[in-house]
Design a protein that fits this description.
Layout lengths: L11 E4 L3 H18 L1 H4 L2 H26 L8 H16 L5 H23 L5 H19 L10 E2 L8 H28 L1 H11 L1 H6 L4 H27 L1 E2 L1 H4 L3 H13 L5 H17 L4 H17 L3 H10 L9 E4 L11
Antiparallel strand pairs: 1-4, 2-3
Helix pairs in contact: 3-7, 3-10, 3-12, 3-13, 4-5, 4-6, 4-10, 5-10, 7-8, 7-10, 8-10, 12-13, 12-15
Length: about 350
């Protein structure tokens, strides 16, 4: 039964939040306010690290929305990551638009281009869909590699920021990254708590059964695909504003999808907290162990294998199942209503 439309039983209440989630909301607001002041007292290296983590997190969250909640496993989301980055650069370098304004425009362009791309991708399913999205990303890469105006295969530099001093550029990029992270979490959370979120979960669990219950499967899958593309484009535009240089091999590398899969699997697929935990772990491993070369890559693979074997729901999923932790609860629960002593029946 759909709890969003079912009448509440007089002896039960519908609970959507938890004590942990309410405490996390207060802590989260405090952390965001403190983080917003970082450019006034922190070091520039801290801001650059945060922008990198933010891009990882947003991209992983969108992959989790697509695969973990929508059941569409893609290894070609880098197509929209790179497309958003290139649109941002072209708007900044050639159209005279401020690159920070061009970040959401690049994301919007990635979402729009996902509509015609979906006509091809949705003809495939299962493993064929995953491979097909990779092929589409390669088409994007080769296409931009043959455009001399953006540097061809060697790429080009974001020149639109030359007139802005380094401190202003870094602080603005940081604030944009913080705003994008907060917006991504809020939008995904509110979407999953809505009726459309319930429909998406029904499609993931059983597409045929969901359609038989009146869920518009094709329309919902397209909507999620476009939203995931928008988020990937947002992460790409933000990343290359901070990086100041873009190339087809960097923008459309399959490593982006591999990183997203790693972060989601480690943190916990099908959970909003999963990409956040996974992004922090992935960044920390890269920060402290990337100098070990191939041993670092072997360590990443070994960690993924261990989580797959012993923590099938990811590290956060394990913590959630064992201790009941849920910062972003999207499920509805029926709990017995506590009756006051004055209303209790005698004897």
């Amino acid at each position: 039964m759909n709890l969003s439309t079912a009448p509440t039983h007089p002896e039960f209440d519908v609970i959507r939040g938890t004590r942990v989630s309410r405490a996390a909301l207060g802590i989260g607001i405090a952390l965001v306010l403190i983080a917003a002041s970082l450019p006034f007292w922190g070091e520039s290296s801290w801001m650059r690290e945060f922008v990198e983590i933010a891009c990882y997190f947003i991209f992983a969250m969108m992959w989790n929305l697509l695969a973990g909640y929508g059941g569409m496993v893609s290894i070609g989301q880098q197509a929209f990551f790179g497309f958003g980055g290139y649109v941002m650069l072209m708007l900044g370098n050639f159209a005279g638009i401020n690159p920070f304004v061009a970040i959401p425009l690049g994301a919007l362009a990635a979402g729009l281009v996902a509509i015609p791309v979906s006509f091809v991708a949705f003809r495939l399913s299962g493993g064929y869909f995953a491979i097909g999205t990779w092929v589409i990303a390669e088409v994007f890469r080769l296409s931009f590699a043959n455009v001399s105006a953006v540097g061809g295969g060697s790429g080009t530099t974001l020149t639109a920021l030359r007139g802005i001093d380094k401190a202003t550029r870094e602080s603005t990029t940081y604030w944009m990254a913080l705003a994008c992270v907060v917006a991504a979490i809020a939008l995904v959370y509110l979407f999953l708590r809505s009726k459309r979120g319930l429909a998406l979960l029904a499609i993931r669990d059983n597409e045929v059964a969901a359609e038989s219950q009146g869920v518009p499967v094709a329309r919902m899958k397209l909507a999620v695909y476009v939203v995931a593309a928008f988020g990937a484009g947002l992460a790409g535009a933000l990343y290359f504003v901070g990086n100041l240089r873009i190339s087809p091999d960097a923008a459309f590398s399959v490593n982006w999808s591999a990183f997203a899969i790693f972060m989601v699997v480690i943190g916990g697929i099908g959970r909003i907290e999963g990409p956040l935990v996974g992004a922090l772990i992935f960044w920390a491993l890269g920060k402290f162990f990337s100098d070990y070369g191939t041993w670092y890559l072997l360590g990443l693979g070994l960690l993924a294998v261990i989580c797959t074997l012993f923590f099938k729901q990811g590290l956060w999923g394990y913590a959630q199942e064992r201790w009941g932790l849920s910062i972003f609860p999207v499920r509805r629960q029926l709990v017995p209503r506590v009756r006051s002593p004055s209303r209790a029946r005698p004897g």
